[in-house]
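Shift notes (night). Ran Quercetin 2,3-dioxygenase while the centrifuge was going.
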Amino acid sequence: MPAITADTLTLPRIAGPAASDTERPVRSVTTGPRGYEGEGFPVVRAFAGVTARDLDPFVHMDQMGEVEYQPGEPRGTDWHPHRGFETVTYMIDGRFAHQDSHGGGGLIADGATQWMTAGSGILHIETPPAELVESGGTFHGIQLWVNLPRKDKFAAPRYQAIEGTQVKLLSSDDGGALLRVIAGAVDGEGGPGATYTPITLAHATVEPGARLNLPWNRDFNALVYVLSGRGTVGPVGHPVAQGQLAVLGPGDRITVAADGTQDSDRPALELLLLGGEPIREPVFQYGPFVMNSKSELVQAVEDFNAGKFGSIPPNALMPHWPLR
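Came back to this:
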């Protein structure tokens, strides 16, 4: 799991708790079921079984892979629409190509993030590049959907390409954990992602036996998703493992710890930490549209069918199928 690595001893350290700080308790732990997305790539449905109230402002999250493809096996999506939210694709390992109907696009590779604001409406595609389809290789990433409040539902579409080298790197107080801040801020240190909805998104690597304790905005909810490995979450040490999501209650800080022994192919505890300011507005979702009412969903479908989300560009990316 390469993403972006660094010598934690050279990084800024996250400050310890103040005397008045409280730890966020674990309210629930759920295990995401496995399924398939797009043209057939395997995913874990990370938010399955969790109430919308606990997730707000997030709508959906898939862990894509982790899978080692054989030649000819990699899959992506075909061209499809979105309206009313933002999609965040974080590639931990492997490569994904992106293109959209508003001029955004590029290659998302190890540790990079593609942040697409669908807003008023957009068409896009995410697909493995042709050379990866032909050769096979490791594929592992996250796709997160971040809701937009009513006032921003029809914002102009926007694309942000965040390279792995741009994320803010921090270390736990003992140097045993590396934190990559993609968006929002931790301990006053901000990541590069620009968001309409105030959120924090970070990827932590916690070495065996190490512990990470970090401050968290009291006004945000808090979710901890296990990408890989085994460990504990919260002040009383609830056990968690790969594919599980912990929903935390109110407080000032989050504590996670890695078990002292990990599997040889998963040498550390890998976590996605995310939270945001709840929007607290009605959510009506129909496939790739996330709106505030049923009538807005009907309008989204009509606008898409009328070609109002833009056009597929000339010489556009298309799903690549190997020659048989």
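The radius of gyration is 19 Å. The chain has one domain: 8-302.
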